Amino acid sequence: MKFAIKAVAISVMFAASSMAFSQKGETVKIAMIEGLSGPFGNVGQNQLKNWQFVIDRVNGAKNVAGVNFEIVPIDSKSSPQEALNGLKSAIDQGIHYVVQGNGSAVALALADAITKNNERNPGKEVIFLNYAAVDPALTNEKCSFAHFRLDADTSMKMEALTSFMKDQPKIKKVYLLNQNYSHGQQVAKYFKEGLARKRPDTQIVGEDLHPFGQVKDFAPYVAKIKASGADTLVTGNWGQDMTLLIKAITEAGLKIPIYAYYAGVSGTPTALAAAGDIEVYQIAYNHSNYTGEIGAMARDFKKKYNDDFYTFSIYNGVVLLSEAMNKAKSIEPIKVAKAMEGLSFKGFNGESQMRKSDHQMQQGLYISKWQKVDAKNTYSVENTGYTFAPVKYIDAYIASTPTSCQMKRP
Questions:
Q1: Is residue 9 pLDDT above 80, yes or no?
Q2: pTM for the whole thing?
Q3: Does CATH place domain 155-284+365-399 in 3.40.50.150?
Q4: Helix count (H) and strand count (E) of the chain?
Q5: Backbone dihedral angles phi then psi of residue 246, each to the nearest 5 degrees
Q6: Is 350 left (phi over 0), alpha (psi -120 to 50) or beta?
């Protein structure tokens, strides 16, 4: 009898131990639903390589959870409808983790569909890690338990950017040029609000919202900027729309400072280098000249792909997932999501925390300036001989903005 009780006790202990570490050695598939073709396909392809590179670097015993991540790429062609078709395909394949970032319209569609799927299909829940879509609505009025944002949202970036710009006395007349969708509209909105609070003496002399991914020649827009007498341009453009804008600015000989969100995205640095003497400041969670482990990672990525690693939130996403899976001792999506809430960890840019109230990453931001490489800033972006050198670090508490999220939890 004593032997039987002892045997049962040992069996229970072993089972508990196996359950506690049940995630170790398991494969976690992640569906990357992204525009991998079309006008912004070069950006998506770069980020696909980012995901694959980071995962290869930290898989298995190299992450605290001991899991093996696997990326499953699905081309959305930057279309919300195509993204929803891709989501259905991922769910049909039994995938419980989805990542996306390029285009807030796509992110909003995915977040809504995933929330509905989780409510209607217990046991088939999906968690969405958003690494680049920055519409504040995603962590405010449209927040969801299933959605976690790894990037800083538009309001956070603009809070940091206007805090820097208020101390630049040369700024007197600003022109706003943005893509006509949620992100571009939000850049304009939050800039106006921040400027009114911090530099009421500064004037907005012009504003345009242009079709997203459709403009082939920005010369007419640049002509309007020149005619306005603006001494500063603020833009949230990215991808093809930013590259072609810089090309038109160069051809027109317009020499005014540009304050941008995505000057470092594929193709744009090459256009900036062709412009020669151009003054550009970027607000982002990263810059080009990290040292230590992160700097080595960026340089190793370039050696492997002859391309730049610039979506650093992908690194944080993998760290966050593995930390949460280790904490939850599980790869089950709801358990992992609960473990991610409020989780603090060491990210690429210092201490980072996934805020529980709205699932918005809290992290420091950088203002960096486009310049020639030098002894201190040695990383050559797109092999141009130029780089984004950090000029100011903005602490997380300064960039942080409040949320109106009323989270519904399972």
A1: no
A2: 0.90
A3: no
A4: 13, 15
A5: -60, -40
A6: left
